[in-house]
Design goal:
Length: 252
């Protein structure tokens, strides 16, 4: 049995006040399990990013509670949350931002040293991770503005993974990449997941969604449907059809 790592109950998130009030997440319940590659889908504006921000404690709920590794993160103050996130959450966004006066390696080390002050340890882990995402030393010594978008994105995954987070949260990580770079980034995430890393990925792209083993579909602020898939395999037509049928049923 897989461990439950996040339990969200009665989540509500509204923006604005009075007539302008919009409720984006509306009484949503969700459990997230360890080692899953969970995908969040739904139309644009459905609240996918909002849900991800809530689950990772980046944004505050309007109502409801979120227990993340046995801790109610809704009761934490900002400092406690910052510490909790550093240890438990890795983030990958559509556009990775690295400090551009520093090499990719130094960016990763900076994140690693916030949690573990054994520099030797962090360096050797970073080197392994860079190798696993196919970024050679000559490249990780460069700054963000000297590498390609795909390389930067893969370095972003290294940074997200450096502290062995409980969950890697990825919000449309391939949204700004061409097809070749997208595949490379998805392969990196798939590899991490195969090694036991729990991942929650928001995407509106079927090819990305196929990497997951659990697809959650958001609509009207709630989970409108979900699908379990067996583990990702390339060119698995039956699996692809299952996702196609599900998305059709969801009205995607
Ligand atoms: N900080 C915010 N302030 C006001 N409205 C917001 C904010 N964040 C998101 N929204 C609104 O919530 C809705 C859902 O946004 P989002 O979660 O980004 O959707 P998705 O990621 O599914 O495209 C949108 O209508 C958006 O305008
Ligand atoms: Mg979004």
């Amino acid at each position: 049995m897989k461990d439950k790592i996040i339990t969200a109950k009665g989540l509500v998130k509204s923006f604005g006040v009075g007539n302008a009030k919009q409720t984006i997440i509306n009484n949503l319940d969700l459990d997230i399990y360890s080692k899953d590659f969970t995908i969040i889908m739904g139309s644009s504006g459905a609240g996918k990013s909002t849900l991800m921000y809530l689950l990772s404690g980046m944004d505050k709920v309007t109502k409801g509670n979120i227990v993340f590794k046995n801790k109610d993160i809704c009761k934490m103050n900002n400092d406690e949350l910052a510490v909790f996130r550093r240890k438990n959450c890795g983030f990958v966004f559509q556009q990775i931002y690295m400090l551009d006066k520093m090499s990719l390696m130094d960016n990763v080390l900076t994140s690693g040293l916030l949690v573990n002050n054994n520099k030797k340890d962090i360096i050797s882990k970073a080197k392994k991770l860079f190798e696993s995402v196919n970024i050679p030393e000559a490249t990780y010594k460069k700054n963000m503005n000297q590498v390609s978008g795909g390389e930067c994105q893969r370095a972003g995954i290294v940074r997200a993974a450096i502290n062995d987070p409980t969950v890697i949260f990825a919000d449309e990580p391939t949204g700004a990449l061409n097809s070749e770079n997208s595949t490379a980034v998805l392969d990196v995430l798939t590899n991490l997941n195969n090694n036991g890393q729990s991942i929650i990925m928001v995407t509106h792209d079927k090819k990305s969604a196929l990497r997951g083993n659990r697809i959650i579909y958001l609509k009207d602020g709630k989970i409108f449907g979900e699908l379990s898939l067996n583990i990702y395999k390339e060119n698995d037509e039956e699996r692809t059809k299952k996702l196609d049928d599900f998305l059709k049923e969801m009205g995607w």
